[in-house]
Amino acid sequence: MALPVSACAATIAQDVAEYLRDSVRLAKDGRIFKALSPSRTFELALNIVYIAIQGLIIMMFKPPSSKCRKALAKPYGRIAVIGAGLTGISSAAHCVAHNFEVVIYEENSRDQLGGIWAHVNSTSGLQLNSMLYRFHPAVLWRKAFPQQKDIIGEITRIWKEYGLESRTKFDTEVTSVRRVPEDEKTTSQPEWIINGGEDGVFNAVIVTVGTCGKPKWVKIDGMPEDVGKDAKKNEKDEEHEDECAAGPFSYATAVKKEYEAPHQDDGKPEDDEECAAGPFSYAAAVKHEQPSEELADQRNEEDDRNKPSTSRLIETEHINHKKHRKETFAQTIIHSSQLDSMPDWKLEGKNVVVIGSGASGVEAVETVLERIEGGKGGNVWMVARSDKWIIPRNIVIDTVLACQPFGREMPLSFLWEFFLTHWHYRGVKDLVPANKGIFEGTPVVNDEFLEHVRTGRCAYVRGDPVRCTKNAVVVNERKRGTKPGDGGREIYLDADVVVLATGFEKPDVSFLDDGLFPDGYERPDLYLQNFSTEDWSILMTNSAYQSAIGTVGHFHIGIYTRILLVLLMDEGARPTPKDMKLWVDVVRFIKRGASGGAFGFFTYAELTIWLLGFHLLRPDRLRWILFIMQGWGVHSK
Predict the structure, then answer these.
(1) pTM to 2 decimals?
(2) Closest listed residue to residue 136, CA positions, set 169, 106, 159
(3) Which residues in 494-508 are b (16+ Cβ under 10 Å) and which e?
(4) According to CATH, what is the number of the domain 272-500?
(5) pLDDT in tens, 229-261
(6) Taking the domain 63-213+507-630, which CATH number applies?
(7) Which of 218, 276, 393, 623 satisfies CB 3.0 to 4.6 Å to 280 for a cystine?
(8) 3-class SS at 413?
């Protein structure tokens, strides 16, 4: 108990010291009222309470770690963990704390510990309050919204505290997971061989490759051939709804030839404030006069010689498209995960086009605007193939939304949509998704982005990237309520930098036997959404996830791990393939008609119901409920 108390006390002391230093600095600068501001004191008090609550959680639920730092003398079994990201480290820590030996396989080097968090920019951080991102009970967040460095720091601390350094094999790609034939087994437990079997036999496998792998590069006509050449592309990957605003595409053939007039909304002239206020007012920025053929040719020649001093949106219906299609974009193209490596001087005074409207796109816009703060930047556009719901960073609102138990749009869901539209989207209501409910896809959690659009710091362009010219991105701009590929009007955005905020590729799990996922029971249609319906000893925590209102980094990681441990310890608690398929079928029946399928979207309340149902539908499992749900009992010998 002394350790969490001392850690919390040290964190609180650090916060108080920073508060006092800032107060002295403000007083020396003559800002007495700011130094004595009650709001600063109130914020400090809230943070102290926040840390104290975390200390209580640690004392109540953290599994002991002292006996895990060396090899377990008499483990209950051996488990292979594939992936050293947040989920993998948390799962392995739970295993060793409850007396199961582990080996963690990570295909990348040591500096990639942390999975996706090791690939994002240093300015990336949690979209939701960190109280909802306690991926392990031992986590101690110092801030409500920690950034990448803090998150990697906590992952690394858990990794070291539970003795996982000696249990992790970096630079080791898993190429096969093979079941030991029944006539070769030495125990009644499941037995699995990883790769060539050099690490012995495992009783279970936890696949924690997640849903975000390597950066996804998209190819648009006019981009240089070598864009993203080091990235492996998988043209068959589904669009990752949360992160990818565009998949592998070429819209030159997808966009209709007919272009509609500038769109009207609800029969009213477009409201500049509701679309993109200030200098990004489309009514003012898009030139509607039709240029002569001579003027169009003149513009093409000028584009090759000069870069415009200010950013423009120009209708291109009468520009020589044949010539533009042969052009190659001559400016900078990067993936959003590379923004850290771009020096500020390459962004200052530049026009930046961000392609993608998911969490990566919103974060990329914020990063660019932060880097060019002080008026040294050009214009910033977001090109959005589809509108995403954006909800505020408010722990109360986010929690209540996640507490909807049905995991789909319901008759009263419109009340939440009405509230968000008229409160959070005030002044930019044109950005509200027209044909998608709040409970049909993962929302973006953000407070600042809509304000950036509202004040004109960022322009929101709904449309499809068609092609690139030498100095611009041509976009098929569409009206609200249309779908990607629908007809619109072509405009071009002068671009010095194009940021592909198109998310990350879905990790490959071909190392698992196809027989583990028969037709109709592939990801995400799995038992409890994470267990193979053919074999409960294959757990895929967070690797079958698609969309949700909730979090992939919270207490369910430990619960799923402990369910696996119970199934290994108690033969009577194990489900049969028939039982597991029946569970999937029942959920599909209950959620029939849900957008994206029964498991394509869920809320955290629905997930909790699934986990409780694991016990309530089988009373013989009730004796394990405190261990599975709270982590109490079954520790290292």
Answers:
(1) 0.82
(2) 159
(3) bbbbbbbbbbbbbbe
(4) 3.50.50.60
(5) 654 444 333 334 344 332 222 223 233 333 333
(6) 3.50.50.60
(7) 276
(8) helix
